[in-house]
Amino acid sequence: MNASDNNPTTPMRILSGMRPTGKLHLGHFKGVLENWLQLQHDNQCYFFAADWHALTTDYANPEIVKNTIWDMLLDWLAVGIDPEKAVIFIQSEVPEHAELHLLFSFMTPLPWLERVPTYKDQIEQLREKDLGTYGFLGYPLLQSADILIYMADAVPVGEDQVPHIELTREVARRFNFLYRKPDQPLFPEPKALLMPASKLPGLDGRKMSKSYGNTIEISEDWATTEKKVKTMPTDPARVKRTDPGNPEKCPVWDFHKVYSTAEERAWVQEGCTTAGIGCIECKTCMLRHMEEELQPIRDRRIALAKNMDDVRDIVKTGNEKARHAAGRTMEKVRKTLKMGYRV
Questions:
Q1: In degrees rounded to 5, what are phi and psi of residue 253?
Q2: Which segments of 195-307 does DSSP mark as H helices, in order?
Q3: What are the b/e assignments for 215-231, b being 16+ CB within 10 Å?
Q4: 146: how many CB neighbours lie within 10 A of its CB?
Q5: 271: helix, coil or strand?
Q6: How far is CA 110 from CA 165, 297, 333, in A?
Q7: pLDDT of the chain, 343 residues: tens digit per residue
Q8: Contact 48, 41 (CB under 8 A)
Q9: Cβ 218 vs Cβ 29: under 8 Å
Q10: Which residues face 192 on adjacent strands?
Q11: Whole-angstrom Cα distance, residue 96 to residue 320?
Q12: What burial class does residue 88 get, using C-beta atoms within 10 Å of its C-beta: 0-12 exposed, 13-18 middle, 19+ buried?
């Protein structure tokens, strides 16, 4: 049981990370970062750039990580992830993650890793890559180390990641059972905080993904965004301006659900089904709200990018805070495992 379970007013310790794959898009913003923005106000949050995790699938191209990690961190800061409220750090700058992962690997049964649903799913989806490696099989266990080294109470996840949190709970239970007294567990059993999934599709109606080429990047200029939206496909039934349409068959409608008011959505519904408005009018209405949200973020990002030394100082400070916390945990782990040698 975690301390926060006994006292609901006690802030939770939250751990979450993202692989550095480059500049983030609105799917990341609406699906992950908006949740982080809410969590950081009332909890003790640790947010990390998971560069080692990126190498589980891109181990042959490590320069990808180096070239993209700062773009991702700039996006975090630009949307409002606050280094005064959250610890922002880079995974590989805290080597205690790797040490705990190694120790966990000695006691974790192999079938626990093989049954993680995303293992076989990703091997199937990424068939062009050679993923028959220990690192890929073991990355859920590295996630467990990421979480437990900060004694996290909870991890914000989507439904597909819940099995990873259950694995972490099993690892914590096994470690406590093997090495600790029943009434003196070392590791808490973190819970999964189910976060609402992004309701924003890609420009073509599919999931927003760089691999589909259907994204709106957080950092792109407004003219680029406006052009992308104005050329989005709409209901194929609306061949001519005078043809009525159905908003439910148009990906722009999903953007209206996120950005437009109830009155504006009613106006779009009426105008589209009666051909009272054209598709450009429909898109322009939504674009006003999107610009109101994105332009301040983009302005902040430009300012941050002009002062990269300040950004690096923020991350350096976060690395130091994270390593201090991780070091305290590893001292307890080594003591538990009778590894405190004096030579």
A1: -60, -40
A2: 222-230, 251-259, 262-273, 279-305
A3: bbbbbeeeeebeeebee
A4: 26
A5: helix
A6: 17, 44, 22
A7: 343 444 456 789 999 999 998 889 999 999 999 999 999 999 999 999 999 999 988 888 898 898 899 999 999 999 999 999 999 999 999 999 999 999 999 999 999 999 998 777 777 777 778 888 899 999 999 999 999 999 999 999 999 899 999 999 999 999 999 999 999 999 999 999 999 888 899 999 999 998 899 999 999 999 999 999 999 999 999 999 999 999 999 999 999 999 999 999 999 999 999 999 999 999 999 999 999 999 999 999 999 999 999 999 999 999 999 999 999 999 999 999 999 776 6
A8: no
A9: yes
A10: 155
A11: 12
A12: buried
The structure tokens listed for 89 are 């750090």
Look-up of token digits 């630009």: 78
Tokens 């301390």 label which residue?
Answer: 3
Q: How big is the chain, counted in residues?
A: 343
